[in-house]
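User: Just a sanity check before I run the rest of the batch. Below are the structure tokens for the first item. I only need the designed sequence back.
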């Protein structure tokens, strides 16, 4: 059986996609990079979910495609050529209308790529009414109620507000008290939360401020750093900030107030349920000085539960019994073939992928913090019955991201 696997010829998926894409010509240039390859977001938002659909066609999912499937992949992209060309044309029209309206919120590719594909599928290339259709789409995407990134940036950088907001940060951080005397064990809840969450025990942990007490050691040198929540030896008070970028957001405890609020406000949907900008900023200042830099005790407890449940990831098993949250998370992680593949690879090839796998627990805690922070902003408390779905869902999300990065890294190496 091993000989048969070794004899299977494969091609780098990225190379196959790139050649098929190049055959589409200049018609898809707005969706391409300067080298003529599809943009990363083109692959992520259009090709994978809407054209190749690897969930339904697993032969297209791996970083290396079996030779016998390469023609099918190329044909899939070629057959979609007219729709992809129309998608590119619609993207140009929407960007033009965006500039005309002086819209700056959000990344155009994130916001419009899939909308353009829908338009291309339903209507074909832009016609005589393209401007009207584009105006309607932008009004729908950007016309959501609620706060915006532009309003946030204007508020925190307005000289009339800076002094007051800075004083609020100073006062909030001066009032921080570190008290770990109420520490409570989480083992009991984690033992059964995946199948039979104990609501009474969860309520007792919340009432006893177990989450807050569990954050007491974050003030010690190196603890928050080891959790992957900061790049500093210990957390420091945040700045107000002047700019933010999704691509370069610092780790959670290193973000400015503007950066903490930036990502939720770039979403096209859901903003209408958020508070106004001044209220969001003042709440965030208070939240930044709280335990785990979260505001609600339920959130703090869930992050503590995540910390304890993820202790086995990428490390030696602690001996947690079968069925516990820790054992289930570790089992999910160890089932991933790409994890074993990366660990067998030389540490220098590719180094960022090795860092991903070795630092999975830190990535997990960062993602969990972001999920909890977003829920707090939307006023969504976490109930006992939701804890396991949240803990497990965060690991699934981390795994999907790491798989994608491994595939991209291997494709880049193959092309090089």
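Assistant: Here's the designed sequence for the first item:
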């Amino acid at each position: 059986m091993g000989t048969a696997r070794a004899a299977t010829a494969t091609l780098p998926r990225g190379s196959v996609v790139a050649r098929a894409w190049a055959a589409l010509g200049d018609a898809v240039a707005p969706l391409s990079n300067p080298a003529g390859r599809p943009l990363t977001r083109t692959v992520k938002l259009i090709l994978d979910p809407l054209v190749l659909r690897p969930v339904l066609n697993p032969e297209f999912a791996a970083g290396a495609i079996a030779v016998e499937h390469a023609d099918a992949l190329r044909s899939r992209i070629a057959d979609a050529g007219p729709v992809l060309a129309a998608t590119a044309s619609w993207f140009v029209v929407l960007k033009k209308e965006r500039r005309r309206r002086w819209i700056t919120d959000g990344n155009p590719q994130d916001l419009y790529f899939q909308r353009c594909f829908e338009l291309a599928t339903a209507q074909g290339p832009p016609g005589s009414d393209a401007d009207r259709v584009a105006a309607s789409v932008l009004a729908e995407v950007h016309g959501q109620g609620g706060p915006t990134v532009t309003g946030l940036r204007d508020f925190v950088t307005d000289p009339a507000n800076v002094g007051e907001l800075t004083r609020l940060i100073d006062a909030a951080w001066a009032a921080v008290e570190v008290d770990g005397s109420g520490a409570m064990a989480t083992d009991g809840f984690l033992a059964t939360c995946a199948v039979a969450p104990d609501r009474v025990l969860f309520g007792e942990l919340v009432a006893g401020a177990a989450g807050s007490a569990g954050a007491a050691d974050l003030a010690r040198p190196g603890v928050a750093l080891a959790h992957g929540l900061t790049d500093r030896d210990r957390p420091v008070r945040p700045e107000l900030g002047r700019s933010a970028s999704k691509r370069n957001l610092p780790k959670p405890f290193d973000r400015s107030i503007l950066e903490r609020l930036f990502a939720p406000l770039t979403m096209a949907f859901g903003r209408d349920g958020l508070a106004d900008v001044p209220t969001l900023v003042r709440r965030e200042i208070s939240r930044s000085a709280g335990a785990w830099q979260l505001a609600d005790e339920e959130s703090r407890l869930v992050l503590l539960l995540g910390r304890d449940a993820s202790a086995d990831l990428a490390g030696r098993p602690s001996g947690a019994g079968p069925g516990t949250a820790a054992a289930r998370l570790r089992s999910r992680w160890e089932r991933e073939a790409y994890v074993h593949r990366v660990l067998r690879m030389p540490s220098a090839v590719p180094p960022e992928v090795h860092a991903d796998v070795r630092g999975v627990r830190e990535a997990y805690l960062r993602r969990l913090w972001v999920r909890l922070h977003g829920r707090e902003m939307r006023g969504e408390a976490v109930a006992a019955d939701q804890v396991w779905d949240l803990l497990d869902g965060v690991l699934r999300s981390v795994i999907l991201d790491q798989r994608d990065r491994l595939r991209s890294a291997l494709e880049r190496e193959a092309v090089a």
